[in-house]
Amino acid sequence: MPPKRAVSAKNAEPSVKLSTRGTTRLQGRHPWVYRSDVVEEKDVPPGSVVRVLDARGKFLGTALYSSSSQIAIRMISHGSVPDLPALVAERIRAAIAYRKENDLVRNTDAYRIVFSEADFLPGLIVDRYNDVLSLQILTQAMDAAPVRAAIVQTLKEELQPAGVVERVEARIRELEQLPPLPTALLWGDKSSTEVRMNGVRFCYDGLEGQKTGAFLDERENYAAAAQYAHGEALDAFCYQGGFALHLALHPAAKCSSVTGVDSSRSALEKAERNALLNGRELEWIEANAFDLLREYSASNRRYDTIILDPPAFAKTKRDLDKALGGYKELNLRAMKMLQPGGILVTCSCSFHVSPTDFLKVVADAAQDAHKSLRIIESRGAAKDHPILLNVPETSYLQCLILSVSN
Ligand code: SAH
């Protein structure tokens, strides 16, 4: 009896059949297939590992299945996957090795270790903040208890953290029809620590703040912006002071004053604490940056350096026009306020705003502001946030460093 059961269990391994369009998408090396391209699925449990077949039944590989997301499957292997937790452990080790072997992470103890699809682990994000690791689980398959156990165990073995924190995005768990969970310490006894980026010190609290607590994708851009920043500087969406502190403290920066603006009081309190940690006091203003820039530009307030790093204005394709309007207004006001020779660092973290759209909107703003701008650097996310070619969704952050002339 036991052997027979084993055989029937194998036969019962869930599978999905794709349309020709879905198959073509996978052949283009994009790991996602939408539900509308799944032509056959029978009794596939939520979060299961599924065999993926083309319309004629030919085996294409193995994927993680979601019963609720529009993205029905995310490919995880071109072969069979008999043991998902073991594969996840192996991929985590590979992601760590990729960063080490290519020397991708420099001058910091805060960086991304696993970036979901870009590290072939769809639905898993892990960031390292010195001795505290912060992870996000975004899909049904990654949420399964044995997979969770393998993730934490591998991270412990490979990185010896003092604590592992899970950051929960309630909306994503809802969309994936997963039971609600609190953001909490998963393992160990430490959820807050201190990190360094480019010689600047930051407090880190794994149980608070946005994203996994900080915007590690901007880390290399902080140092780049500091190379050109000078005079009076304004960081208009400063959060906990990532750019502002670099402009004030990085050895390359030549700023006489730095002001940080954010609409979130708690973010500013952290920014102030970070400045004090570095032995500096900076000016922090709680305000809506749109209103403040409008007011300052109307009263002819001038700056030498302005940083614009707003939240993603286009969360979906439908928001695109409104988002472009928002980026244009901000950039226009900033350009008007910059002295000749001034530096504008302008970012977009909206995936739906393409590099071409963003350049066009900044160029339109320059036209309306009657200014000429030269691109000093055109940048993206830090190298520990890999961009997987053929998966445009892994490329979302743009950062232009511009010099302004009349
Ligand atoms: N530059 C920051 C990240 C900015 S994230 C860093 O590198 O750490 C975007 C920030 O914009 C958030 O802190 C959010 O609180 C703030 N924000 C959102 N809308 C705003 C508005 N209208 N005015 C000012 N700040 C705003």
What ligands does this structure carry?
Answer: S-adenosyl-L-homocysteine
Q: What portion of residues belong to β-strands?
A: 25-35%
- The portion of residues assigned to helices is 25-40%
Q: How would you describe the shape?
A: globular
Compute the number of helices: 12
Question: Over all CA atoms, what is the radius of gyration?
Answer: 23 Å
Summarize the main sheet. Answer: 7 strands, mixed
Strand order of the largest sheet: 16-15-14-17-18-20-19
Nearest-integer average pLDDT = 95
How many angstroms separate the termini? Answer: 84 Å
Query: What is the quaternary state of this protein?
Result: single chain
Task: Write a concise synopsis of the structure shown.
The chain is 33% helix and 30% strand. It has 406 residues and is of the alpha/beta class.
Describe this structure in words.
The protein contains 12 helices and 20 strands. It has 406 residues and is α/β, with parallel strands linked by helices. Residues 1-10 have low confidence and may be disordered. The longest helix has 18 residues, at 84-101. It has helices at residues 2-11, 20-27, 84-101, 140-143, 145-159, 170-175, 219-228, 242-249, 265-277, 289-298, 320-337, 355-369; strands spanning 15-18, 32-34, 38-41, 49-53, 59-65, 71-77, 110-115, 124-129, 132-137, 163-166, 184-188, 192-197, 200-205, 230-235, 254-262, 283-286, 303-308, 338-348, 372-379, 398-405. Strands 16-15-14-17-18-20-19 form a 7-stranded mixed beta sheet, with helices on both faces. Strands 2-6-5-4-1-3 form a 6-stranded mixed beta sheet. A hairpin with a 5-residue loop joins strand 4 and strand 5. Helix 10 packs parallel to helix 11 and helix 11 packs across helix 12. The chain starts with a helix and ends with a strand. The site of S-adenosyl-L-homocysteine has 19 residues, from helix 8, strand 15 and helix 10.
